[in-house]
Design a protein that fits this description.
47% of the residues lie in helices and 19% in strands. It is an alpha+beta fold. It has three domains: 77 residues; 105 residues, 2-Layer Sandwich (Translation, Eukaryotic Peptide Chain Release Factor Subunit 1, Chain A), CATH 3.30.960; 100 residues, ATPase, nucleotide binding domain (Nucleotidyltransferase, domain 5). Strand 9, helix 7 and strand 10 form a beta-alpha-beta unit. The chain starts with a helix and ends in a 6-residue tail after the last strand.
């Protein structure tokens, strides 16, 4: 009887063990599935995090590009607020005020650039390197005499000027100090000696000799030159030949007068030429003096010879738009 009971208990125990084994196996499967789901969820989360990071980086890059593009557009749209031409006296007055400025925190930037040199090619302070508008505007100027820059970095409404002097800047240099450096610019306000002047126009050319004190002598060379017209055909070609011959004769007449004036006792150190560049080159074809070609707005006649002298000794001042360059 006990054997029968033991067998029944044993069978019951075996059944329970088997049930536990099956339950354990089922639980293991569930656990493995849960772990697999968790791994997949973690991988999905990691993938989502990577994708989100990439999206954020893409957005940041696009925002940076947009900011750079907007900054470039803003810089491209910048222009000078004005460009007055100041005679020697007014330039000296303005320069006196520029020299008198002081910035204890050393925030005054000065530079001189010889013709053809660009501000961006200089070793600049970091604050100036960030002033892309200033650099673009300065480098946009094509002055035959070079330029000088006077820029107060921090003061709103402070000095922000570029100047094209009447005579050549001699060295490219920059300064970042408590005061503006004006020596290089001041030297370019003075001619290297007596200046010969030529303002060439077909039929009427001005010649003269001058110093910083004024005209020494001058003359207006006149000759008959046919006016341009717009007729076509053979008549037009014949007219153009006749006009070219008139211009050649005028150039010869002006050249003779110019050589006579400049080969006297008062030998000039420099020729400043303006007006019609091609005609000026014809008149100066045999001239052995250095020639500075300038854009002159004045058209001389007998009554305004002094105006020619004033413009030649004048400085073009360019007013920068603002300090947010």
């Amino acid at each position: 009887m006990f054997d029968i009971l033991n067998k029944k208990e044993l069978e019951s125990l075996r059944s329970e063990v088997q049930a536990l084994r099956e339950e354990k196996a089922a639980l293991r499967i569930r656990l493995e599935k849960q772990e697999l789901r968790e791994k997949k969820a973690l991988a999905a989360k990691q993938g989502a995090d990577v994708a989100l990071k990439e999206c954020r980086q893409t957005v940041e890059r696009l925002e940076e590009k947009a900011a750079v593009h907007m900054a470039e557009k803003r810089v491209e749209s910048l222009s000078f607020r004005g460009s007055p031409l100041l005679d020697a006296s007014h330039t000296r007055d303005l320069l006196f005020r520029i020299r008198s400025l002081r910035a204890p925190d050393r925030e005054l930037f000065s530079a001189t650039l010889v013709p053809g040199r660009r501000l961006g090619s200089l070793a600049l302070p970091e604050k100036i390197q960030r002033k892309t508008g200033l650099i673009r505007l300065a480098d946009s100027l094509d002055s035959p005499t070079g330029i000088a820059i006077f820029y107060d970095i921090t003061a709103p409404g402070g000095t922000a000027l570029i100047a094209a002097p009447p005579f050549g800047i001699r060295a490219s240099q920059s300064s970042y100090a408590e005061n503006f450096q004006t020596d290089g610019f001041e030297k370019a306000l003075e001619a290297p000696g007596t200046v010969a002047i030529l303002v060439a126009h077909a039929g009427e050319s001005f010649i003269g000799l001058a110093t910083g004190d004024g005209l020494i002598e001058s003359a207006l060379i006149r000759s008959e030159v046919k006016e341009k017209h717009s007729k076509g055909g053979w008549s037009q070609r014949r007219f153009e030949r006749l006009r070219e011959e008139d211009i050649r004769r005028h150039a010869e007449k002006a050249e003779e007068a110019f050589n006579e004036m400049t080969n006297g006792d008062l030998r000039p150190a420099l020729v400043v030429a303006g007006g019609d560049e091609t005609l000026a080159e014809m008149i100066l074809s045999e001239c052995d003096l250095p020639v500075l070609t300038r854009q002159l707005s004045v058209k001389p006649d007998k009554r305004n010879a002094e105006a020619v002298w004033r413009e030649i000794w004048s400085t073009r001042w360019y007013i920068l738009p603002d300090h947010n360059l």
